[in-house]
Specification:
mainly alpha
Length: about 70
């Protein structure tokens, strides 16, 4: 997260990263056979997707809290 970014910008950047990772992951998972490197990439992609999903959820909760105040 860069200093000076709004919560919406952080959310949108995380959402875009998540979508990009999801496309690559789906491309790999539709292959009939994965190499060892591709299997490792799948694991890394899944972890990165979770990381960005966590950011999105955290920012979303912060935005909801802001609306209640």
């Amino acid at each position: 997260m860069e200093k000076g970014e709004s919560k919406e910008e952080i959310y949108n950047r995380a959402k875009n990263q998540h979508a990009t990772l999801d496309r690559r992951l789906n491309m790999l998972l539709h292959k009939p056979y994965l190499t060892e490197e591709e299997e490792t990439e799948v694991k890394v992609l899944k972890k990165k997707k979770l990381y960005f999903k966590d950011i999105m959820e955290r920012v979303n909760e912060e935005l909801k809290k802001g609306e209640k105040d």
